[in-house]
């Protein structure tokens, strides 16, 4: 195989990987959208019944659970925790806004 064939093959493999990455990114976006639809409903339920927007014990359980899952799947548990913390902060912000709206701003 000459260098041109090798580069052509590498470009084909790269294109295949990128197509898979694009599919995974799309799936992640759809999954996050579904997750946030659910957490919006949780926020409405909490606001309706005067429950606090945040649940530190639930968050701690989720962090431990996702760190275990990350470790089992060979993903950096620190990355998984950072990602979850980012998502949870956004969820809490939404819940606080829902509660504020429910209570007249």
Word description of this protein:
With 105 residues, this protein is mostly helical. It has one domain (3-102): Chorismate Mutase Domain, subunit A, CATH 1.20.59.10. The protein contains three helices and no strands. Helix 1 runs parallel beside helix 3 (77-102) and helix 2 runs antiparallel to helix 3. The mean pLDDT is 94.
Q: Which CATH class applies here?
A: Mainly Alpha
Instruction: State the end-to-end CA separation.
Output: 69 Å
| Major beta sheet summary | none
What does the overall shape look like?
elongated
Count of individual beta strands: 0
CATH topology value:
Chorismate Mutase Domain, subunit A
Instruction: Specify Rg, calculated over alpha carbons.
Output: 20 Å
Please give a handful of descriptors for the protein shown:
Chorismate Mutase Domain, subunit A; Chorismate_II_sf; 85% helix; 105 residues; Chorismate_mutase-related; mainly alpha; CM_II_prokaryot
């Amino acid at each position: 195989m000459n260098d041109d064939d090798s580069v052509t093959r590498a470009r084909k493999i790269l294109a295949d990987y990128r197509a898979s990455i694009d599919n995974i990114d799309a799936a992640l976006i759809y999954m996050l959208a579904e997750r946030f639809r659910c957490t919006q409903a949780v926020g409405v339920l909490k606001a309706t019944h005067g429950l606090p927007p945040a649940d530190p014990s639930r968050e701690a359980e989720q962090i431990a659970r996702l760190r275990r899952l990350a470790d089992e799947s060979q993903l950096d548990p620190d990355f998984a925790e950072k990602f979850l913390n980012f998502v949870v902060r956004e969820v809490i912000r939404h819940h606080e806004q829902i509660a504020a709206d429910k209570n007249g701003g």
